[in-house]
Every structure is written in structure tokens, then in C-alpha cells.
Amino acid sequence: MAFQTVFKRYEIKYLLTAEQKQKILRAMAPYMVADQYGKTTVRNIYFDTDNFQLVRHSIDDPVYKEKLRVRSYGAADPQGAVFVELKKKYQKVVYKRRIAMPQKEAAEWMAGIRHCRSDSQISREIDYFLEYYKTLKPAVFLSYDRQAYYLKDCSEFRMTFDENILCRRYDINLESGVYGDHVLAEGLTLMEVKCAAGMPLWLTSVLSEEHIYKTSFSKYGMAYKKFIYPALKSGAGTSNNADEPKEAKKYA
Q: Where in the numbering of this chain does the VTC domain appear (predicted)?
């Protein structure tokens, strides 16, 4: 099955209450179509250094940031397809490269046991990333339930709604069940607008009418601030070198 391997777009995020979500769903009904997969549970393993260099840099809101993850849609199995994804953000524009491969091969590649079976520009970028950071290892398991939609006359304009965002730092395995700590407060939904250009008028209108404002939100970043950093600070984690998040410093 063909799938997109290279993305360049804006990703604009909003935190919605249940009531706001329903109003947006009603407003978008004449224009948007649910994608063919329906509601999907997305599983991710994020990779980071021993002292969480990547996520710490990311939550400082730099001009440039990058992350590496392995993702499955639904439960993975050793020979089932997963995506190895390198995601970069520069001056608000998101660039994503991904390769599909069996889960077992992806795990061995990330662990340095083997190279990617296919030699491509994307695989070479990921190899460089692995070599540059050297000590990358599975840092956190993140899962969420996602419903995705695309614009009827422009499949590149997408909107996603993520709920039940969970994280854990143990049993970091795409084949395992979905459980962990709740990253978002109960009743909230993370909506993402993914587009190469501007938003349609009907969407900007409902956002304005309902006083819904964009926010800076990273699932991994929030997991670090809420759970990982406090555990490290209390001595329950595995590293003593992680710096205090910006928000924690500000409100200490």
C-alpha cells in the first residue's frame, strides 16, 4: 500500500473542551471527511539521550528542533509494519521523513544491531541522526486515540483529534497494551490542523466565535514536564543530569 514518506507543512494545535469539540465537528461536517482508518490508537516510542537532551531542547521553544520516534497504528507485531519517523521543525514549519518496515527490523536498526534494509536519502538522514546523538535509546511510550479528517477538495488539509493521551517509561514496547499516566486532563482533546497554506474561512470563523486559541503543545514535552522530570528530581528516574523545565523554573 502506498503511503506518503515526506511531509512539509504547518501544524497548529488547540486544546478543546468537549463542548468546543462538538461545535467544531458540526462546523466542519459539510467540508471534511473522516479518513479511511476511522478512530485509531496510535502507539509511539520516542528516542532520547541519557539526559533527555532532545525533549529539554524542544520545550525551550527554539527556532529549530528535532525528534526521532517509531510509530505503529494499532498493536504492532514483530513482522507488522511500523514507521521510523524523523521530525524537524524550523521557523514554525514541520518537516517529517518516514520509512515503513517490520517492527523487528526497526527495533534492531534503532539499537544499532543492523542498518536499514533500503538505502535512501531518508535512511541516511536517520543514520546521521543516530550517529550524531550516539546515546539515543527508547525514552518513553506514548499512545493516544486519534480520529483524522481531510478536506473534501484538498486531501493535504487535515485535522486530527487526539484523546486519551497516555505515557509510560517502562514496558516501552509497541507490542504491549495501551496504559500509563494521563498526559491531558480529563475531558480535553488535542486538535491539530495540518496544512501547507492557510485555513479555510469556515474554520477561522468557528475558532473566533468560540474563542479557541492556538497553543504550543508537545505530547512528549508535556509527559516530560508532568512525569519524567519530577521522577528524575525525586531520584526515581535513571538520570541526574536533566535540567528543570522552563515552566518549572518560572513558577518555582
A: 8-227
